[in-house]
Specification:
Layout (H helix, E strand, L loop, with lengths): L1 H26 L20 H20 L4 H28 L7 H20 L10
Helix pairs in contact: 1-2, 1-4, 2-3, 3-4
C-alpha cells in the first residue's frame, strides 16, 4: 500500500506543488522553464507534464519507502531533503544530458526549491487518510 500511496502522492504533488511553484517562478521571470508543458515527449508522445508527473510518482515510491518508519517530523524533513536533492541531482546528471539541455549552475537553487516543495507536497498528501463510511 505504501507504494501506491507514494506514487499517487508524487504524481499529484508534481502537478500541484511543483508545477504550481514553477508557474509562480515563470511569471516572476525567475526560470525559463514553462509550467504545465504540453509538448510531446519521446518515445511515447505524452505531454511533458504527464511524463514529469509519472516520474514524480516513481520518486514518490522510492522516498516513501525510505521514510515510512520515521517519526512524523523526521518524515517531513526527509521528504523535503530527499525530494530536493535526489530528483535535482538526477535531473542535472542524467536527464539534462539525455535531453540535450545545457546545464547552467544557476539552475541548481531553483531545482532544489522546486523539488523540495514537491517533497513537502508529497508529505502533506501522504497524511491524507481515506476511511470508508461505517455502515448504518
Amino acid at each position: 500500500m505504501i507504494y501506491v500511496r507514494g506514487f499517487i502522492a508524487g504524481f499529484v504533488s508534481t502537478l500541484v506543488f511543483h508545477q504550481g511553484l514553477l508557474g509562480i517562478l515563470y511569471v516572476m521571470k525567475a526560470t525559463p522553464f514553462v509550467p504545465f508543458n504540453m509538448a510531446s515527449t519521446k518515445p511515447f508522445g505524452v505531454p511533458a507534464v504527464v511524463s514529469l508527473a509519472f516520474f514524480g510518482g516513481v520518486w514518490g515510491v522510492v522516498i516513501a519507502k525510505l521514510v515510512v518508519n520515521a517519526a512524523p517530523v523526521k518524515q517531513l524533513m526527509k521528504w523535503i531533503v530527499y525530494g530536493a536533492i535526489g530528483p535535482t541531482a538526477v535531473a542535472v546528471a542524467v536527464v539534462f544530458p539525455l535531453k540535450g539541455i545545457h546545464f547552467q549552475p544557476k539552475i541548481i537553487p531553483a531545482g532544489l526549491l522546486l523539488n523540495g516543495v514537491w517533497g513537502l507536497g508529497c508529505y502533506l498528501i501522504m497524511q491524507i487518510r481515506i476511511r470508508p463510511k461505517a455502515a448504518g
